[in-house]
Amino acid sequence: MIQKAYIHSLHGYHTEKKICGLYILERLIYTLQKVGIKQIYLMLNEQEKILYEHKILPHIKKRKINAHQCLPGEVPEKGSLYVPSNLFVQPHYFEHFDDYFKQKKGVFEPVLNDNQFIISTDEDIKKAELLVVKYIIDNTGGYIAKNINKRISIPISLQLAKTRIHPNVLTIINMIVGFLSAYFVLQGSYWQVVLGGLLFQLASVFDGVDGEVAKFTFKVSKIGGWLDTIGDNGTLLLFLIAVSVLYFENTSARTASIIITLLFVGLFWFIGMIVWYLRKFSESGSLVAYDKEFLQKLPQDDLLVKFALSMKYFTKKEFFALFFFCISFTGKIYVLIPIITFTVCCGAIILTIINKKYFRIVNTLR
After folding, report:
1. 247 and 215 in one domain?
2. Per the confidence metrics, is the pTM higher than 0.90?
3. Are residues 85 and 214 both part of a single domain?
4. Taking CA atoms, which of 102, 148, 159, 340 is between 20 and 30 Å from 319?
């Protein structure tokens, strides 16, 4: 892996233009840092130096990135990366390094194409933002999330990214919306339950905003992942408690007590196994990592694994939030509790068997 990169100036672009809320030069620095380049050297013109020192450097210092300006006459070392300051490049391009960079006179320079290009006009900026957004959407699982939720959340995220608001603040705001959804469901009247279902659906839509802003501004962190996980599951837990109260009030006490007990035992067991995996084996705090890093690596001909992978979509917030919202219009949202209980308990049993069977095998290969 290349350890050093030199960023040099090219004339003909507005230095204060931004891509997804970040200055073009600033975004390039974050990209190089994200892909593992340890030392970044800046060979800037006067206009860029002013921008860097007054508007970019304070943010660079907060992130403890090893970037500093070159001395006059300094030349790039052999084997280093040599890129223009207004280059558009995405981190995942480095996974195919030979396709995007070629060695020339001892240093690696970018190969310019439709995906990686020099930014000089407003049209170039629009094209760059579209490519960033496309990558996020393409790597989003689930029909509802990709084709409905993202169409709403991404335009909002692009605007919020310009404010430099921290993604964790957005996570907390979304948690509050989720908690309010449980509060209104708990009130029990028809329109309050519908409002609770609507807020729960909005929380699902806006759940992507914090992650999108984090990706746009390169503020993805394990702490943020855990906070998002706590927020998602805390919202779900409170919402289920509220619906369970309605179920208890509309069903015989004995039946309701048994089903509700099974629901929360199964839910805590189900989530607990995933969290245990994340803490012990993963660098991520997101529940999605359990699927990507563990389930998808298991033998696809195993019937239980195949069933778990096929059913995982129905356990995602994007699906059941919309389902809850639609059912809330019937005035009997509480009828979902037995169905959810059965689903959660089956899921917990299946994951227990899969974990016991494959944890040792998978983690000896890590």
Report:
1. yes
2. no
3. no
4. 159
Name residue 101's beta-bridge partners. 110
| DSSP-derived pairing of the beta strands 4-8 and 81-84 | parallel
CATH number of the CATH domain containing 269: 1.20.120.1760
- Kindly report the CATH number assigned to the domain that includes residue 26: 3.90.550.10
Task: Please check whether residue 309 lies inside any domain of the structure.
Answer: yes
Residues 153 and 299 in one domain: yes
What is d(CA 257, CA 266) in angstroms, rounded to the nearest whole number? Answer: 14
Instruction: Report yes or no: 260 and 247 within 8 Å, Cβ to Cβ.
Output: yes
* Nearest one of 269, 272, 303, 307 to 290, comparing CA atoms: 272
| Closest to 47 (Cα-Cα) out of 14, 70, 79 | 14
Which uninterrupted H or E stretch holds 6?
strand 4-8
C-alpha 357/C-alpha 361 separation (Å) is 8
Could you state, in chain order, the average pLDDT of each consecutive group of 10 residues for the chain (366 residues)?
90 86 96 95 93 94 90 89 96 96 95 96 96 94 85 95 93 92 94 95 90 92 79 86 93 93 93 82 73 83 85 74 91 91 91 84 57
Domain that holds residue 166: 142-364
